[in-house]
Amino acid sequence: MTAVLPKLRAQAVANDGERNVAVIGGGPAGLATAFFLTRAGVPVTIFEARDSLGGVVRHVIPEFRIASDDISHDAELCLAFGAKVQLNARVDSIDELKAQGFTDVVVATGAWMPGSAGLGEGAELDVLEFLEAAKKGEKLELGEDVVVIGAGNTAMDAARVAKRLAGVKNVRLVYRRTKKQMPADEEELDFALADGVEFCELLAPKALNGAVLTCDVTELGEPDASGRRSPVATGETVELPATTVICAVGEGIDASLYDAAGVEHDRRGRLAATSTGVEGVWAAGDCRRGPATVVEAIADAAEVARAIAGVDFNKYADCNEQAGREDTCYERKGSLCRDKRNCTKTRCLAAARCARSAATCAPTAPTWQLRCRAWPSIRWYMSTACATSAATAPCSAPTRRVVPIRTSSPCSGASRTWRTPRTRASWLWTRTTLKSASPARSAPSRSMPSTPVFPRPSA
Q: Which of 3, 369, 379, 440 is the most exposed place for a label (fewest CB within 10 A)?
């Protein structure tokens, strides 16, 4: 990083040179907007209400997910082309910034408003408040049983953080739909389950009385406006131990800046596009979409930079390989050779093991399925492609795909817990050809052997 930054130079100003942009918010969307615009030669000033840049990524996402040093490096890179920063500078009016001489104002304030689970009784802790306090190292006394309401990526982070806190024994994710409908990435749930978090589905929290959370048992009905099947109460209830309830349901957008500037938005504060309809006012990131991803925030920033300064992100498109040129792809990656014993190619795509370097692996690798002898219903997956020569093929352990195992529920039979095995030391393997891309999830039918054995899959 220290070697690269001094070499970066902004491009010549592509517009009339009179543009001067203010960005409200120094999170991923604000930093990306500043990066794209200053690289194009447009002056940018970031106004950040907190004492450091990074937004939710800096202040909320746990350290074990993203290291603070990495966030600092990213922020340093985004400022490399000369963007100015004002910290501890809260902006209450877009008109005030325009009065200071800024021609354009980009709102990138994120989505920090707390959501609500709608409990009839009892108090709930906001998930962003909890994660920020935990990341600061504040002493948190949550008790032994923590319930996290929600099934988004933020809920997964909250559950994993709570599980690591002193004094916490049980952490449960409670969701009114099923695992299939959850908004979180499936791998995020896998990580949480691997940490010992329990997932209770088809439960809608109703009230917290003392240390007991009462939930309505639900079932899936007809699809709603989002396309997901709506949860419908069955009339049954379940009680869960809960010394602390953390609400991770739909962080909201503070639309006060929009309202003051005459920007139209929906009832949740979201905008249809980065262009707000008000001249010189733009929006990017979570404050436009609602809670989303860093990648989507960067996409909004690119769109804003394209609109303000005519930034061309397709400059090198002609240098990309065109679709349909399979021969060129094979030439770059290697040659297919099924007869590995007599193969004379130095870069064979048909060797039996995955290469040490992912950069040399073929993207269209054949896949094998590993079946557990003890529990035939459990399948794992291994890549069989290697871009090295056949002589060096046995180079690393197989790459596994974790498949959750369906087990009995801790929630009085009303929901289901998914647990994920973490070590190879629990399994016996045989190799079978892959017949389906979807792993089976039926319940195991046999007990595990006491002494596992690991035959190496044959080439």
A: 3
Task: List, for residues 358-394, the tens digit of each pLDDT value.
Answer: 334 444 333 333 333 334 443 333 333 333 333 333 3
Secondary structure element (H or E) that encloses residue 204, with its range: strand 203-209
CA dihedral of 200, 131, 255, 303, whole degrees rounded to 10: -90
Q: Read off the pLDDT band of 227 (50, 70, 90).
A: confident
Q: Does residue 219 contact residue 178 with C-beta atoms inside 8 Å?
A: no
Please tell me which residue, 258 or 321, carries the higher pLDDT value: 258
* CA quadruple 319, 320, 326, 331: dihedral, nearest 10: 60
Give the residues across from 418 on adjacent strands.
406
Lowest mean pLDDT among 40-49, 246-255, 326-335, 418-427: 418-427
Of 277, 285, 280, the C-alpha closest to 302 is 285
- 29-60 per-residue burial string, b: 16 or more CB within 10 A, e: under 16: bbbbbbbbbbbbbbbbbbbbebebbbbbbbbb
Residue found by looking up tokens 């002494």 in the block: 451
Q: DSSP code of 171?
A: E
Tokens, residue 453: 């054995």
The residue assigned the tokens 């450091």 is 52
Going by C-beta distance under 8 Å and a sequence separation of 6 or more, which residues neighbour residue 368? 381, 382, 383, 384, 431, 432, 433, 434, 457
Q: Which residues pair with 284 in a beta bridge?
A: none
